[in-house]
Amino acid sequence: MMRFAIEKITTFTLAYMRRIGEYGPVNISLMEDLKKWANECDLMGQDSILLSIPHDNPWITVPEECRYDVGIVFDKEITRDFEKDDFVFLSTYEPGFYAVLTISHTIEVIEYAWANVFEELMKAGLDIDMNKSAYERYW
């Protein structure tokens, strides 16, 4: 149901939108807003990588304070001026090694993965840096 590999992720910049509140189906509409904006700005392409980043652990953070970002990855210099889009922000992420899971994109599988991924990674003998964000990557 869930398989993973270790990948080296290079430095990248993310143009992203943020939502604060309980995680769940409403996050899908944020991703749709991002895709609409990226298409209107001619930023979406066949090779575009989209990320969602749940920043907070919902078992520790109260639901109304959970931060959720969705963004489009840029691995080259950005020539667009984002200052006029006051709902889109930029952030640069540093390189590192990441466990990358390949799963089906269904609610049940995603919930299973989040509930079990850390235990599975520890069983595999991998160290987990809980100070870094986890990403969901979409092509």
Give the topology, please.
Elements: E1 3-9, E2 12-20, H1 26-40, E3 50-54, E4 67-74, E5 89-93, E6 96-102, H2 107-123, E7 136-138
Antiparallel strand pairs: 1-6, 2-4, 2-5, 3-4, 3-7
Describe the model.
The chain is of the alpha+beta class. It has a single domain, classed as Multidrug-efflux Transporter 1 Regulator Bmrr, Chain A (Alpha-Beta Barrel). Helix content is 23%, strand content 32%. It has two helices and seven strands. The chain has helices at 26-40, 107-123; strands at residues 3-9, 12-20, 50-54, 67-74, 89-93, 96-102, 136-138. The strands form two sheets. Strands 5-2-4-3-7 form a five-stranded antiparallel sheet, with helices on one face. Strands 1-6 form a two-stranded antiparallel ribbon. It is globular.
> Class, according to the CATH hierarchy?
Alpha Beta
Number of domains: 1
Range of strand content: 25-35%
Estimate percent helicity: 10-25%
Kindly report how far apart the N and C termini lie. Answer: 19 Å
- Write the CATH fold name: Multidrug-efflux Transporter 1 Regulator Bmrr, Chain A
Mean pLDDT: 85
Task: Tell me, briefly, the overall form.
Answer: globular
Rg computed from alpha carbons, rounded to a whole number of angstroms: 15 Å
- The CATH architecture term is Alpha-Beta Barrel
Structural class: alpha+beta
Sketch the major β-sheet. Answer: 5 strands, antiparallel
Q: CATH H-level name... which superfamily?
A: Regulatory factor, effector binding domain
Got a strand count? 7
Number of helices: 2
Element-by-element helix/strand order = EEHEEEEHE
Widest beta sheet: strand line-up: 5-2-4-3-7
Q: Could you list the spans in which at least 5 consecutive residues all have pLDDT below 50?
A: none
